[in-house]
Amino acid sequence: MTQPLVVGTLVGNPRPASRTLNAALALREAVGQALRVRGEEVAPTGPLVDAADLAVEVFTPGSTAVREALENLSAADVLVVASPTYKATYTGLLKAVLDQAPGGWLRGKTAVPLLVAAADKHALAVEVHLKPLLGELGAQVPGRGCSSTSRSWRRTRRC
To answer: Measured by CB atoms within 10 angstroms of the end CB, which terminus of the chain is less buried, N or C?
Structure first.
């Protein structure tokens, strides 16, 4: 008997409880539903890391909080990675968290990148910046990354 697939979520917004977090949770649910439609069994919950909760620890010498968060996320088979768009790319906080991941951390996993932007002009940032970062960590990133330019993820998304 196979284990259900686990869908995890990493959010790189420095603001806690952000609209990026809400968009990431909505995308996680959509990914889970798409997997179920394909006949896959999906675990009811998966690891969730809101990097805003780690911000103080990211550059604290000797802190193990980021390493522990990454270890929790490594239990996911599919990982939604979301960030607001800052200066036409993902946030420095997300980069600082992922810089602490070991080489090949996402090998054998599927990643679904999401950038939340204020304007359509940033729609390609997910393809140009976030998707290659996840590939560098070893993830398979099938299809296009997702972007959203609205406060309501469900109304305007591109995947």
So the answer is: N
Name the DSSP letter for residue 143. S
Backbone angles phi, psi at 150, to 5 degrees: -125, 155
Q: What is the CA radius of gyration of the chain?
A: 15
What is residue 124's predicted lDDT score, i.e. its pLDDT?
80
Residue 54 is given by DSSP the state: G
Give 7's strand partners.
Answer: 78
Rounded mean pLDDT of 28-32? 98
Phi and psi at 45, nearest 5°, equal -140, 160
Segment 133-144, tens digit of pLDDT: 999 999 999 999
Q: Which residues pair with 5 in a beta bridge?
A: 42
| Contact by Cβ (8 Å): 81, 134 | yes
Q: How far is 46 from 32, CA to CA, in rounded Å? A: 10
Residue 105, CB half-sphere, CA atoms under 13 Å: how many? 21
